[in-house]
Amino acid sequence: YYLDGEKISLPKFTLLGATTMEEKLSKPFRSRFQSILKLEGYQGQEIAKIIKEVISQAGVLFESGSIQSLVRASRLNPRMAVNLAKNTVNYSIALKRKIDFFLVQRVLREMSIDKKGLNENDHLYLNALKTFKKQIGLATISAFTGLSQKTIREDIEPELIKKGIVE
Question: 1 pLDDT band (50/70/90 cuts)?
Answer without folding.
Answer: low
